[in-house]
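BUG: 3D viewer hangs when loading the predicted structure for this chain

Environment: internal workstation, default settings.
Expected: structure renders.
Actual: progress bar stalls at 90%.

Input used:
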Amino acid sequence: MATTSKIEWTEQTWNPTTGCTKISPGCKHCYAETMSKRLRAMGTEGYENGFRLTLMPDRLDEPRKRRKPTMYFVNSMSDVFHARVPFEYVDRIFETIEKTPQHTYQMLTKRADRMAQYFASRPVPPNAWLGVSVENRRHGLPRVDHLRKVAATVRFLSVEPLLEGLGPIDLAGIHWVIVGGESGPKARPMKLEWLQEISQQCRDAKVAFFFKQWGGWGADGTRRSKKSNGREFQGRTWDEMPAQTEVA
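Structure tokens produced before the viewer hung:
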């Protein structure tokens, strides 16, 4: 079901599929896997299969029932472009998106090549923002090139968890960058200089920059609770959102 989200950069989550499989270091401590197991143990409807990929066609129409314009994060508990999600089913997801122009949909994937393949023969609805995860240089940065091939009104990067310095990032055609450290008991630290490097590149390229969290490690390299470390960077909270752009 669609639920109110605690994620700082969205309002609601909508999960027409649940479950996933790990494909890169960013998946190592997947919050969705942990949450799926917890929901299954609680007997929550829709999580009978735990974290095994599952299509949820009964959820496809949920956003159509909501008239109030809403920012939806699509598949916070899965990946729309997983290889085992048929394109015919993805078509049904985007049919709902097209039929609800009052909403904005944020869609994030680690399978950027399959996303580019899907949209090679299909237009992107103007109310769909498309993003890729960028956790490191080897796995994350190549996804940006695939994203750039897709003609979306907003293209964004979710640099979370940031696991190493990324070096120069080609931000051409990118409208928004979200950065965050990892949280949880096994969180890997994010270094201040990695964050500074990305934020400066965003400012230079005039790309909206959103700092989500420090996570389990503070700016000083000390382990604390996520709440204690907070969200401030350079003495302020960075909540920049992308301006709506023309498809390019």
